[in-house]
Amino acid sequence: MEINAPALLRQAHFTMAANEVKQLPPDNGIEVGFAGRSNAGKSSAINCITGIKSLARTSKTPGRTQQIIYFDLDDTRRLVDLPGYGYAKVPVSVKKHWHALMESYFNKRQSLKGLVLVMDVRHPLKTFDMQMLEWCKATGTPIQMLLTKADKLSRGAAAKQLTITRNQLKKDGLLLGDLQLFSSLKSTGKEEILEKLTEWFGIE
Ligand code: GDP
Q1: In ligand 1, which atom is closest to the CA atom of 184?
Q2: pTM of the prediction?
């Protein structure tokens, strides 16, 4: 059965895109970030979770991938689509900008309540993901990790990947939150992530 997101999440709408931390909206209320290497399935996950088909762009225009994109839920709560790279080769200058932008975002953003880290179930824990985990650890940011595109593996293989990834995180001291299977195509794991977002946003 298709699970609907709480009304608050279904209200998500694009409000702004920022290249620099100083352009961000006032740092109050609650925001939840979504991060992932490009092509991991982050946009599809945002669309699946909110139930809004074309909220986040699944086919990226260059440049936009380097921006922090805001989807407001109401006056005090926001979803934030954080920039990602990693699928194709990117110039050093782009990586540098990304690193500076994200480091500053994590260190300064008081309203960041939690991070959803989206990883392709077949290729988790790449350098990009490890960096996000390190920033979460350093700043004490709660995290929910999605192993998405779970429909691309058999049930058994997906469960095995979940265990392998969890063990690796434990070994690295980076099991900082829940790790779950997800599929935007099949809505697998939607209930679990909705529960987490309900908690973070304080939805009644
Ligand atoms: P992003 O770059 O991380 O925002 O990734 P997208 O959401 O644009 O997805 C990248 C590609 O993976 C697209 O072709 C999607 O259709 C596909 N994709 C994303 N999520 C899933 C999923 O859960 N299952 C399957 N089979 N394909 C997916």
Answers
A1: 23
A2: 0.96
